[in-house]
Model the fold of this input.
Amino acid sequence: MRYLIIADVHSNLEALKTVLDAAEGSWDTALCLGDLVGYGPNPNECVETVRGLNGLSCVIGNHDVAALGQIDLDTFNPLAKFAAVWTKGQMSDETKGFLESLGQVEEMGATTLVHGSPRDPIWEYLEYPSQAPENFARFTTKLCFNGHTHVPKIFSQDAEDRRTEVRVPDPDEVVDTADEHRFILNPGSVGQPRDGDPRAAYAIFDADGERFEYHRVAYDVEATQKKMADARLPQALADRLAYGF
Ligand code: ZN
Done:
């Protein structure tokens, strides 16, 4: 079985469609790691597209929770708050119903899916080595896939001595997940990358071959920016897409 893994789509339909075109034929079942909405101009279209992906498993992210009005928006920075309020006003009943149906953690065979981290599935940004031991202790599968930081990342833990390593993968790196490590793997963000590379990020996981493949694909950033301007979403949120930050 081959899985398409997408995270942090953030209502960016151009990026999402480009990823789906690029990945066509290379996966059987889709996994989505939350933050389908927030920031971008096409919340309903993105949710509808993701809902229609074959065999979808999906967890909820902090921006999804925010757009549903389930948290105090003052925990967001002003730009994210503005976009969350805008998104809330745009969402159809179908979009809301789908987001409300999502859980925080999904376990699928050898893999656990979360948005943030195993320890705090909605909110924790998993970035530093110091966070690794606690988080590896909070799930039991060999693998965990997460999003939230918008930066591709590899956390690995030696199954014997429990030593952990954290590093940023190369843009097209293939990780051999068959070796004697457990992994927390972040594919990066489809709709708002923050690692200095504006290209949409996604991954393919081949469960039989035990390979996790990182991918990047350029999409029409200007088309998304134009839609954001038309929707009067903050200029800074449109600008950052061009820089991947
Ligand atoms: Zn996000």
Remarks:
- The chain has a mean pLDDT of 96.
- The pocket of zinc ion is lined by residues 8, 10, 35, 61, 63, 148, 150 (CB under 6 Å).
- The helical segments are 13-23, 43-51, 62-67, 78-90, 93-100, 132-136, 221-230, 235-243.
- The first strand starts at residue 2 and ends at 6.
